[in-house]
Design brief:
By secondary structure, the protein is α+β, with helices and mostly antiparallel strands. Helices cover 38% and strands 21% of the residues. A two-stranded antiparallel sheet has the order 1-2.
Length: 112
């Protein structure tokens, strides 16, 4: 089963502006002349509240307790160690995002 790509963007005045328009165009050109179905959803955070609680109360807390560093310092260290900082300019405003490096993953909560 093929993965369906998702393209993020912004709606202003009833018009869509994609964050990566070249990727959208490249994908659409691969589809050729065919009928398509488009779904649009309001943006939501990538991490759920439950995931966020796990991260702060388990991952960060354990490292903080073991190292003696405060949780915010541990969080900043983990961001620098495992995420790639990406800065882009969207509509004249600087946006900073963090993305996993090398497909890193944390263990499942039930397996720690």
């Amino acid at each position: 089963m093929a993965l369906t790509p998702k393209f993020a963007g912004r709606v202003e005045n009833g018009r869509i502006t994609f964050h990566k328009p070249r990727e959208v165009s490249a994908y659409l050109s691969k589809l050729g002349d065919n009928e398509i179905e488009v779904s649009i959803e309001k943006w939501k955070d990538q991490r759920s509240m439950q995931q966020n609680r796990y991260y702060w109360s388990v991952v960060v807390k354990i490292i903080s307790n073991d190292t003696g560093n405060d949780p915010e310092t541990v969080h900043e260290f983990l961001k620098a160690k495992f995420l790639t900082k990406r800065e882009t300019i969207i509509k004249g405003e600087k946006q900073t995002t963090w993305a996993m490096q090398n497909g890193g993953a944390l263990p499942h909560p039930c397996k720690i």
